[in-house]
Design brief:
Length: about 400
């Protein structure tokens, strides 16, 4: 919610607004820790077992509790104080990371104990994400949610780029070090969230009935604009997941080797980060519904260009454009969902959105791998990009209320 200083003029200093700064700091720290975990956990499990199956189990063990608890988590975000929900989750993550650091340093940590810790992190993330997303409109100055969303997305992209690199370097110094850094980041994030003072609407106190738990699903189904934007993202990511094929492109098509794979993986995040800087200063002010559809079409077209490219430079440009276009879509989608949802429902609607995002990411990688196995990597990526464009054009006709959204704020 806005502070008294934000009402003095139409021009608000987003980064002078203390609740948002604390929120942004906490989000950056927790995303940084999560990205370190991706590298450190994967490397440590593989060092202990040498099993590709165990590597795959990390993602499954983390995803299953998230999927099972996400609707309960959404209700918790609407029933209890959101920054306190996020803070408790980050403290649990801090204790879990400390357990991993201690066990690794002492040498007694087994792969089964790692899986148990990963499951705890998955449970904490299931409760943290809907509450964190629902908290953003409460800490952003009035009329600046789009800029706040762009800035928060930029923080995520910075973590995406820097976290894995730092995790790899830290692990090389000591296998326990990345887990210790994760614990420190989550502790600092919890402290930041604890310091946020939000004078907003009171959380709903509905009992956890079946109807209350799935009220977010009902709300999304009844709101055509929200249903359209969430389902558009689901199918766009599901079909356009060419990044899952990057190892094949790096080795067999672009002939670059491991260094090329690292650069290719960084390209979408770099394009996304540049776009978040732009949107934070120049938010989209009109025809936002159409701009989101156009961004998805550009994302699909860039995917096709990448799929057909045999030049490293052209591939990097295409991936960067795809990342930038995806960021436009993400910023509009998050802002539209938050502004179209009553504050008392934001946690449960955020849970539906969170489930869709995770399902699209997981299933998108699976779809890309299966399509590549059947058709070959290049035809699969081309079909995926064209499919994304077709979905965007089809959704424009199916959801005219989304297409006709003029402004966000």
């Amino acid at each position: 919610m806005s502070s008294p200083s934000t009402a003095k003029s139409g021009r608000v200093n987003l980064f002078g607004h203390r609740p948002f700064l604390l929120y942004l700091g906490a989000r950056t720290l927790t995303e940084f820790a999560s990205q370190i975990a991706v590298v450190a956990l994967g490397w440590h499990v593989y060092a202990l077992t040498g099993s590709a199956f165990d590597l795959g189990m990390i993602g499954l063990v983390q995803f299953l509790p998230m999927a099972a608890l996400v609707f309960i988590a959404g209700h918790a975000a609407d029933r209890y104080t959101r920054q306190h929900v996020v803070q408790v989750c980050q403290l649990i993550e801090c204790v879990t990371a400390t357990f991993l650091a201690w066990g690794t340093f002492s040498g007694w940590l087994t792969v089964h104990e790692i899986f148990a810790a990963v499951a705890v992190l998955g449970i904490a993330a299931a409760f943290e994400s809907p509450a964190e997303a629902a908290l953003l409109p409460n800490v952003a100055p009035e009329g600046m949610l789009q800029r706040a969303t762009a800035s928060a997305t930029g923080a995520f992209q910075v973590a995406m780029i820097s976290g894995p690199a730092f995790g790899g370097i830290a692990y090389a110094v000591s296998p326990a070090l990345p887990f210790a850094v994760m614990a420190s980041c989550w502790l600092l994030a919890a402290m930041c969230n604890g310091a946020i003072d939000v004078k907003g609407a009171e959380s709903a106190k509905e009992p956890p009935t079946f109807e209350a738990l799935f009220a977010g699903v009902k709300f999304v189904r009844q709101n055509r604009a929200i249903l359209g934007t969430i389902s558009l993202d689901l199918f766009a990511v599901l079909l356009g997941g060419a990044t899952a094929l990057l190892p094949i492109y790096a080795r067999d098509i672009l002939h670059t080797g491991p260094w090329g794979l690292g650069v290719l993986r960084a390209a979408p995040a770099a394009g996304a980060l540049l776009m978040t800087f732009y949107l934070a200063r120049h938010p989209i002010s009109r025809r936002v519904g159409m701009r989101m559809f156009q961004a998805v079409i550009v994302f699909g077209a860039a995917t096709v260009v990448f799929a057909l490219s045999r030049s490293v430079v052209l591939s990097l440009i295409a991936l960067g454009v795809a990342g930038a276009a995806d960021t436009i879509s993400v910023v509009i989608r998050i802002s539209l969902v938050q502004l179209s949802t009553p504050d008392a429902m934001r946690g449960r609607v955020g849970a539906v959105n969170y489930l869709f995002i995770n399902a699209s990411n997981q299933l998108g990688e699976f779809e890309s791998g299966m399509a590549a196995a059947l058709l070959g990597a290049m035809p699969a990526a081309v079909v995926g990009g064209i499919g994304t464009i077709v979905v965007a054009l089809l959704w424009m006709r199916l959801f005219p209320s989304l297409r006709d959204v003029e402004r966000l704020e």
